[in-house]
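Recall that a protein's primary structure is simply its ordered list of amino acids. Everything else, from secondary elements to tertiary packing, is in principle encoded there. The following example makes that idea concrete.
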Amino acid sequence: MAENNTIDALKNVFSESILHHEINAGDQCVVFVSPSQNTEILSWLREEPTQSYDLLVDVTAVDFGEGLPLQVVYQLWSLKHKNSLRIKCELEIENLTIKTVTSIWKSADWLEREVYDLFGVEFIGHPDLRRILMPKTYDEGHPLRKDFPLRGRFSRAEQTRRALSQDYHDYYTEEMLEIGGEPAVSSPKYDTDKGNAS
């Protein structure tokens, strides 16, 4: 009932920006909203006392491939009302941009970076949008996209060559290096002529 009240309340406040809703896995309420209104809707869900979805559990994405829209998914939980809610925004593959929600939940910072890294979604206004899992020099694309080849875009030999020729600066920011210093163990150098590590 509480989740149905959320749907009704969203429709009353945001009308046409609430596209449709469904129930998944028996009890998970999923609401599809207009991507252009994501911050307004999510902020309202957090601040409205009758809703109080104050915990951002996750930000992720789903790519179905075949040119279908990519879904940005926000998993919410209300500590006060003990309700869960899933909000989805569908983005066209040609325009994977959406506003950041880091001003609503600070925890979105690294979650959005992961979606950017693995799916290629640009979060407009994010304070530090850069790769979080793949090295910053990784140029094969976004590994969780359906159009990403199963074995990567380069041959195994080329992938190995690139991996072994990377510098630790590719993995750490200057701030991290100032705090932790240079790594105690350096990576082996890759002999591109002989095709092996030394």
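The chain has a mean pLDDT of 87. Residues 118 and 142 are 5 Å apart (CA to CA).
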